[in-house]
Amino acid sequence: MKEYANRDEIVLATKVNGRMHGGPNGAGLSRKAIMSEIDKSLKRLGTDYVDLYQIHRWDYNTPIEETMEAMHDVVKVGKARYIGASAMYAWQFLKALHVAENNGWTRFVSMQNHYNLIYREEEREMLPLCKAEKIGVIPYSPLAGGRLTKDPQEKTHRSETDQMVKQKYDATAATDQLIINQVAVIAEKHGVLRAQIALAWLLQKDPVTAPIVGATKISHLEDAVAAHSIKLMPEVMVSLEEPYVPHQIVGHL
């Protein structure tokens, strides 16, 4: 990063909560864990601040007041510019916003949630909440672990081995296939790749700010950039959304 980019032109984000080492403070969102892990993250990243520091899911073992005050302090000492949250229920996110507002602490500016063409349960509560509270939405798994980019018979190492993707999408594979088929039809009509259509749809959904693309090849980044140039007509958006049926909630803990 230091060699190839201007730090001021990069939005650098990281998260806290996951297990990093043994012991009671090796995971979670306690003050001790947050203060310790931000320093370790900065050291690993080779920078003195991150632009966005996010809590990953909800910590049921730590009062949200403790978490929000610690995140506020991380911002105040200059180790993060903004804070965000990830993968939780709307009531939890609203509670965190309320606690911060009541105490005059730094507020979350973003929500990193599970959202794509074959998983749209976030449209029920989380997205309306984010829109009302002017929260940026940065969805993860925008291509559903690659399922929106290919036919089901096309096997990859990831499709065969990624248990998280299987857990999220195998149970609804039959109904999801109707949407995947429609993505293929629209992509062919536009003369573009399926990934670009799936990302273009997401980019046109309010209040989505920027999908998180798990790029392992330069072409993945090129697809993401190309998606910005694709404008889907309202009737095309409807045709992509119409086959969707309600799903069980996945991604939250």
How is this structure best described in words?
- The chain has 253 residues and is of the alpha/beta class.
- The protein has a domain at 1-112: NADP-dependent oxidoreductase domain (TIM Barrel, Alpha-Beta Barrel), CATH 3.20.20.
- The chain starts with 12 loop residues before the first strand and ends in a 12-residue tail after the last helix.
- It has helices at 31-45, 64-76, 90-103, 126-132, 157-161, 163-169, 173-190, 194-203, 218-227, 234-241; strands at 13-16, 50-56, 80-86, 108-112, 136-137.
- It is built from ten helices and five strands, in the order βαβαβαβαβαααααα.
Q: What amount of the residues lies in strands?
A: 5-15%
Quickly name the level 1 CATH class of the domain at 1-112. Alpha Beta
The oligomeric status of these chains comes to single chain
Q: How helix-rich are the residues, as a percent range?
A: 40-55%
Record the SSE blueprint:
Elements: E1 13-16, H1 31-45, E2 50-56, H2 64-76, E3 80-86, H3 90-103, E4 108-112, H4 126-132, E5 136-137, H5 157-161, H6 163-169, H7 173-190, H8 194-203, H9 218-227, H10 234-241
Helix pairs in contact: 1-2, 2-3, 7-8, 7-10, 8-9
